[in-house]
Structures are given as C-alpha cells and as structure tokens.
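User: Can you help me understand a structure? I only have the sequence.
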Amino acid sequence: MRQAARTARYDQALGLEAYSLRAVDRPFPSHFHDHYVIGVVERGTRTLTCGRQQQVIGPGDVLLFNPGDSHACIQADGSLDYRGLNIPRSTMLALAEEIMGSRAMPGFSVAVVRDGELAGRLRALHRAVLGEEPELRREEALLLAWGLLLPGYAGMVETVSACRVEVERTCAFIRSHYARHITLEELSLQAGLSKSALVRAFAKAKGVTPYRYLMAVRISEARRLLERGVSSAEAAVETGFSDQSHFTNYFTAFTGLTPGACRELFRQEWERG
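Assistant: Let's start by predicting it. Here is the structure, written out as tokens:
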C-alpha cells in the first residue's frame, strides 16, 4: 500500500503556493477557500460535489475553484494523486490585468475541464515551483499556463451577489465575529429569519451550512496567523477554538496540512527570503 503524503512550497516571487497530494484515500468534507484553487488529477477517481453539481473526476481532469466555491469529494476508485495551486485574489487580479488587460476578478463557470494542453502547462508550472527552478523559468511557466487558463475558461465575476440579502448579512456577521462563540439563535436574529429558514436559505445559497461557513472562516484566518509565525496554540485561541485537538482536526480536514506543517512551510520561506 502506498503511503499518503503531502508536499508544498510557497513561492514568494510568484505569490502562490504549489502542493502535491499522494495516495490520499480520505474524504474531503464540504468546504471552501478564500483563494482560487487550480489543480490537476494525476491518479485515482473521485466523486466531486461542487455547489449543487456532482461528477466523477479522474486522471487528466483540471479543477477550477473560485474563492467561496463550496466543494467536497470522496474516493471512487483508487487513491488520489493530485497537483494543486493556491492563488490569492491579489495574485489572480494582477495576472488578469497582465494577460487580459482588465483589472476585473476572473471567475470560472465550470469546476472541471478536460484540456490536455492546459494540464501540461499547469504540470510544468507546478514542477518549476516545487523544484525551485530559477525565477525567470517559474514566471514564464506561470504566464504560459495562465495564458491558456484565463482566455479559455474565465469570465468576469459578478460584483453584485445573487445571494439573498439575509444570507449575505449572516456571512458578514460571521466574518466579523468568528473568534467568539456564535449561536444559531444569534444568527437568525441578525438575518431576520427563523433558524430553520436561515439554515435552508444559507445552504442553498452557499452550498454549506452556517456552521461549516464559520469553520471555514476560522481556518482561513488561522492559516493567515500561522503564515505570520504565530504558534498553533495561539492561532487556535485567536480564531475561536478552545480545544487544540479540535483545531488540529478541522485544520487538517480543510487544508490537508497540520497547523505545525503549515507554519513550517512558511518558516522555510522566511529563512530563504
């Protein structure tokens, strides 16, 4: 049996993170990120749920997740090998201006595409980043990949959300108060909806429940703290986790890394830098 492994490197010059998952059997529960995720499946098949759509993904498929896209996947056949790129909004915006000539946030309307040329360009970029190739080579690989990605699959993200006002109000409240205990009763009062109506409306609009949204916000904020060198214990407390093991379990489920491994990844970049 192959042993599960994850490797990652943050490229400060390019402003993105490259990572690899190998021999992964565990499911990924429904979650979202506040950055873009672009990936290539190399081995194994999985059942992917993105929003309200479900499909089977396999080797050669390119995955395109916008910030906030709720997604989950479970094993279908064979363990998963996967190459991924995490791209902050600021990096994506700069690339869109460079390639498309417009300072508009790009958005992907489909989560899975089959494009051999694009997959090859993404693999080349991924290898260049993880292999710490010269900066010129890495930047060329990035622009070549994005030169296919953005014109081929990205449109302008709508600036006005189609979600209900009550749901957006709830999201804003969670983002402002994620570090403290929040009850469903409190959220329903903020939204002006009954608890059951809020849960149904929220899940329909966002693809996750209010609790899962809260956990995703907490993990995202914890990751930012770890990137700045804050200890795992302090990051847990500052983001509303009273129990360290609870924090570690959620962080690993959402990111594929333990908090300590995430902090170590960025510590290596500080020392290089």
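Now, to help you interpret it: Residues 4 and 233 are 26 Å apart (CA to CA). Residues 158-163 have pLDDT under 50 and may be disordered. Let me know which part you'd like to focus on.
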